[in-house]
Amino acid sequence: MTEFKNKVVIVTGAGGGIGRQHALEFARRGARVLVNDLGSDVRGEGGGPMADSVVQEIRDSGGVAVANYDSVSEPESAAAIVEQAVSEFGTVDILINNAAIDFVPSTESDLTGLDFSDFDKIINVNVKAPLFLSKILSH
Questions:
Q1: In 3D, which of 64, 59, 52 has the Cα closest to residue 7?
Q2: How far, in Å, CA of 11 to CA of 92, rounded?
Q3: How far apart are CA 64 and CA 32, in angstroms?
Q4: DSSP state of 113
Q5: Do the Cβ atoms of 29 and 1 come closer than 8 Å?
Q6: DSSP string, 39-99
Q7: Contacts of residue 60, Cβ cutoff 8 Å, sequence gap at least 6
Q8: What is the pTM of this model?
Q9: pLDDT single digits (tens) 12-66
Q10: In angstroms, rounded to a whole number, what is the distance separating the alpha carbons of residues 80 and 76?
């Protein structure tokens, strides 16, 4: 089993689902984890303490983690995610680009019910965000 002792990991969309599992497993293996999540639903709407819950679970297990609520969908807020990880932990070793949203209307079986503003949100989170974060970390 690979260990990640003292590695710093950013996991986006880590408040639930597979992102949560990534955060928990990296922490279990010794990583220090920045848990990024808006606390929103799969459509990117709403907000809540999902990141806090994951951080608390990691800390309760003896791990090290901090919560982050910045959006991955804009370059400035993506930069804030990286800045917080560096401020808290000194570096970033691993990035898990997990955040994603889905706007296909539940009453539609195809994309014809999707409006352009929803499509832009999908592109920003699902396509551009990994580029923003990866580019920031490459400098």
A1: 64
A2: 11
A3: 5
A4: G
A5: yes
A6: ---TTS----SHHHHHHHHHHHTT-EEEEE---SSSHHHHHHHHHHHHHHHS---EEE---
A7: none
A8: 0.88
A9: 999 999 999 999 999 999 999 999 998 755 555 556 678 999 999 999 999 999 9
A10: 6
